[in-house]
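User: Fold this; tokens only.

Assistant: Input:
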Amino acid sequence: MEMTTTTPVTMTAGAISEIKRLMEAPEFDKSQVLRVGVKGGGCSGMSYILGFDKMEEGDEQFTIDGIPCTMTKSHGIYLMGMEIDWQDGLNNRGFTFTNPNASKTCGCGTSFAV
């Protein structure tokens, strides 16, 4: 597992606050880290992954404001420079992704094409 000095993605203060809130829950498994990634599927071809998971061999590790994060190394080409935000409004509640690598995004904001 490789530790990078620069983070491939960034998070807004709102996203950091929400993730830390989730990590402070009594049922949170402290052996897990935040996984950021992509998978095939969604309306535009690829969907974002954001959740707690165990480290895997070959993962890239990084830390954002004290939050241990991991990513499958090959996902970096799709996610480099992406910003993760937390929206908590009347019309939209959840994590949102602003990805400079996406050539097209869908209306729901959770899938994209490159």
